[in-house]
Amino acid sequence: xxxxxxxxxxxxxxxxxxxxxxxxxxxxxxxxxxxxxxxxxxxxxxxxxxxxxxxxxxxxxxxxxxxxxxxxxxxxxxxxxxxxxxxxxxxxxxxxxxxxxxxxxxxxxxxxxxxxxxxxxxxxxxxxxxxxxxxxxxxxxxxxxxxxxxxxxxxxxxxxxxxxxxxxxxxxxxxxxxxxxxxxxxxxxxxxxxxxxxxxxxxxxxxxxxxxxxxxxxxxxxxxxxxxxxxxxxxxxxxxxxxxxxxxxxxxxxxxxxxxxxxxxxxxxxxxxxxxxxxxxxxxxxxxxxxxxxxxxxxxxxxxxxxxxxxxxxxxxxxxxxxxxxxxxxxxxxxxxxxxxxxxxxxxxxxxxxxxxxxxxxxxxxxxxxxxxxxxxxxxxxxxxxxxxxxxxxxxxxxxxxxxxxxxxxxxxxxxxxxxxxxxxxxxxxxxxxxxxxxxxxxxxxxxxxxxxxxxxxxxxxxxxxxxxxxxxxxxxxxxxxxxxxxxxxxxxxxxxxxxxxxxxxxxxxxxxxxxxxxxxxxxxxxxxxxxxxxxxxxxxxxxxxxxxxxxxxxxxxxxxxxxxxxxxxxxxxxxxxxxxxxxxxxxxxxxxxxxxxxxxxxxx
Length: 605
Description:
By secondary structure, the protein is α+β, with helices and mostly antiparallel strands. The chain has 4 domains: 7-122, no CATH class; 129-244, no CATH class; 267-465, no CATH class; 472-603, no CATH class. Helices cover 54% and strands 10% of the residues. It has 29 helices and 10 strands. It has helices at 16-29, 50-55, 69-76, 85-92, 96-109, 111-122, 132-154, 157-161, 169-180, 184-187, 198-217, 221-238, 246-258, 266-289, 293-296, 300-307, 315-319, 323-338, 348-368, 374-382, 388-391, 397-405, 413-439, 444-453, 511-519, 528-538, 542-545, 573-579, 597-600; strands spanning 7-11, 33-37, 58-60, 66-68, 472-480, 486-488, 490-491, 548-550, 560-570, 583-596. Strands 2-1-3-4 form a 4-stranded mixed sheet, covered by helices on one side. Strand 1 (7-11), helix 1 and strand 2 form a beta-alpha-beta unit. Helix 7 (132-154) runs antiparallel to helix 11 and helix 14 (266-289) packs across helix 18. The longest helix is centred in the C-terminal third of the chain and has 27 residues, at 413-439. It starts with 6 loop residues before the first strand and ends in a 5-residue tail after the last helix.
């Protein structure tokens, strides 16, 4: 039993801002420190001059050691993470102690200035940051994200990577094993090494759905977090080109960090903030270094809403806003992505400004583009820029009571060491990626570390919309029974039939629809998967034909298929009023010449 007398902090009881800070410190230190106005204690400490007590706080340790000023403040933080690092800086970082005492002396003699900046940065009635509510809420929202991601993949898994799909995972793993040998298991960590039959693919998806629901309810929290990360990592590697999007890797990184959240370590909260910074800042940097003139001239949004992969019903209207409005939106995007992220590392109120800027831009993207769970997951991450005090008034009382009853385990040495190692790795990898993106030079030391960590998606590079697509070309697949009369296959979501206007798709991602957009940006020989898709249509693969809204050959396969290139543009307001159509199109040329099963069946896979 520890009978050690608690430390005593003496302060000016007549100073309003002093009392505010003392209330804050009391919540941090609990019963480890007693607090007393010096006006009531001068007789108990005759060795300390009243003038000194009036000029600075004094901390009397249990062994009689006395600290004052900035040193006394930092000593209060010695057992509190992450503030405890301030005491280390004070003791060992040259110059830090001198400037700390200099600033303390200034604010001690200008307490009105101290009150102004305190209320400006932290508000009135500020309290120590706690993240119990934030953590509880984020884990449920992460479970919701996992749930959407697994369901979305499950309904198209057979068409994507099944035995009769476009890119069967069996052939892919065999090719990787043949090329890499035993290194394949480390370079491509996936459960599909154990089995790659369609039934096992469905099992992985169903297991992910069940575990996501369990995470949402809070049942077997830590087990669910580990297994969900492993399952989604398996899908990312097994899904090949269909699972190569930035949001898939963002979910992996978020999911891996979340494994450590139940420890209650503030280090993980700061790692999420670091992730938000990297995601936002790199999004701005890549736009600048890409050399795309549309960002320099602020015309990027004049093209974006028309040429993005899957528009929403609002995209047509936003595209027709005045050019000045779209240019202003482009400028604000660059400001929010390049400058605002630095507010993440500032005190509470300015960090909240950054959070609201990010929430606004992500909501705008969500409303004007179908990016599945991408924007939702980003919004969920932004929660870590707040603290419990900022959102507790929005939570129902019963949930707050339930959360307050939930106790996180004490962060032990192993947990703290793992969190610290993650922090160092993430900061090193993330800062090197920022340096690499800005200078376009990747050093060999970084490459070595990256090769080890890259297969696990722990730290990733981000940067959406680096180069703006200015012309929307669409690939239209057609089939024929006689190579004379051709009929179009209609996708469920991507532009095709001119009678179909954009619709809401998110949070589902139809991955073949998405890949068709990327294929239109490349030459046919670079899109092997598309050739496989055409072959599957000739084979009348049931999982593949099911992805289409309209299959012109429901009973028997076509004799030949081809792919043609069209340029799509939004209709004008007059054209839409007259025809009801959102799109116009004009034929550009041939993308894939007619192919038949007789000539091409040996080329599959």
